[in-house]
Specification:
Elements lengths: L7 E5 L4 H11 L3 E7 L18 E5 L4 H11 L4 E4 L5 H5 L3 H7 L4 E6 L14 H7 L19 H25 L3 E6 H8 L1 H8 L20 E4 L5 E4 L4 H11 L15 H12 L4 H8 L6 E3 L3 H4 L3 H6 L2 E4 L2 E4 L23 H7 L4 H9 L3 E2 L2
Parallel strand pairs: 1-2, 1-4, 2-3, 4-5, 5-6
Antiparallel strand pairs: 3-12, 7-8, 8-9, 10-11
């Protein structure tokens, strides 16, 4: 069942951090029911074949009063709800925090947006790159003098989704103790800012400069960077500590006397040139044979297609296959109540009738909802 076995969560269908939070909660054993728009009947629930996994899928028309009544009845049995829409949308639909907490005072109502529920930008449109830009994160994903490079949508969507999942678990624990629910405001801009906490600390201590590409962790340091190999592939190097740097030098046959001031920023450009030339002398496979598994803090830079085949990833089962789709396994790992993928991503409305029956709807009620067009079954 996983550590969240028995927890019932409703997820209003959306994109980005909402489905990612639902994935994390479902993988840990929660029963997550995704409520999608009836007009999308039969389509994959959302655009993500991976992040929609493990759900029960119900199709509801929230513009139909009977559809709203259906969701509110389900709310009575839920411990949490995921709202992925911009501020005010669910209130206008009739399934906002006021209506839902009115039906179930113990409900944890989790709202996830880009800018948050308040502030000057709360109602503005945006995407991951915008949120991490304003949070002070994107500016630091750049080499010296270079253009900032978006780190996929990992920081905004990932940070916001994890923030929401964490918030929901915290909220459920507190509601079980206090007997009263509450509303969670999880913003991607907040999640991105929170992930930057160590860098804020480094800046406060004088160890981080705002200029891009001149710091220890942003490609400024020659011993914390990626390098091309003879066959046009890439490796990563990170022997920050003295003992690990000594291990690296010993493995590759370089004289420690040639690097007397490696912590000095002024020495880094020359070190970069030397290491760039060094790594071009062998293929990635040859560097792996020499350095992988040592304390040189080395790893090949692998695309997804190769990462899933790496012996360490295979041994740990980090990437698994579900319904023919390679994808990350549930994480973190529990010794006694391990998480598990609850099933493949459903199509919209795949479980409408069965789920409503399990959530206390009688056969006559389900039939009436079909007649009014409030629900649909794929």
């Amino acid at each position: 069942m996983g550590p969240l076995g028995g927890v019932k969560i409703l997820e209003l269908g959306g994109i980005g951090p909402g489905p990612f939070a639902g994935l994390m909660l479902s993988d840990m054993g929660a029963e997550v029911v995704r409520i999608d728009r009836a007009e999308s009947l039969g389509r994959l629930a959302g655009t993500e074949a991976v992040t929609s996994r493990g759900r029960r899928a119900v199709a509801v028309d929230l513009k139909n009063p009977d559809g709203v009544a259906c969701v509110l009845k389900m709310v009575e049995r839920a411990e949490a709800l995921i709202d992925p829409f911009r501020p005010g949308v669910t209130d206008r639909l009739g399934v906002g925090p006021g209506a839902c907490l009115g039906r179930n005072p113990r409900l944890v109502y989790g709202r996830v947006t880009g800018w948050g529920q308040d502030g000057p930008l709360a109602h503005a449109a945006g995407h991951d790159i915008n949120y991490i830009s304003l949070a002070g994160a994107l500016a630091h994903f750049a080499r010296k003098g270079g253009q900032p490079t978006p780190p996929l949508n990992l920081i905004g969507d990932g940070g916001g989704g994890m923030l929401l999942a964490f918030g929901i678990v915290c909220g459920v624990l507190e509601a079980r103790r206090a007997g009263q629910g509450q509303v969670i405001d999880a913003a991607m801009v907040d999640g991105a800012a929170l992930l930057m906490a160590p860098i804020w600390g480094a800046a406060a201590g004088g160890f981080w400069l705002e200029e891009a590409g001149v710091n220890l962790l942003d490609s400024g340091a020659a011993y914390y960077d990626t390098y091309a190999t003879r066959d046009g592939k890439w490796i990563s190097l990170a022997p920050i500590e003295d003992r690990f740097f000594a291990e690296f030098l010993g493995q590759v046959g370089l004289d420690p006397a040639d690097f007397p001031n490696r912590a000095n920023r002024a020495a880094w450009p020359a070190m970069h040139e030397r290491l760039t030339a060094l790594f071009l002398t062998r293929t990635r496979a040859e560097w792996c044979a020499l350095l992988e598994g040592t304390d040189a803090c080395f790893a090949p830079v692998l695309p997804m297609s190769e990462a899933k085949e790496h012996p360490h990833i295979v041994a740990r089962g980090t990437i698994i296959e579900q319904a023919g789709v390679p994808q990350p396994a549930p994480a973190p790992r529990f010794s006694r109540t391990p998480g598990a993928i609850q099933g493949p991503a459903p199509v919209v409305g795949e479980h409408t009738d069965a789920t409503l029956a399990e959530w206390g709807f009688g056969a006559d009620e389900v039939a009436a909802l079909h007649r009014s067009g409030a629900i649909a079954q794929a």
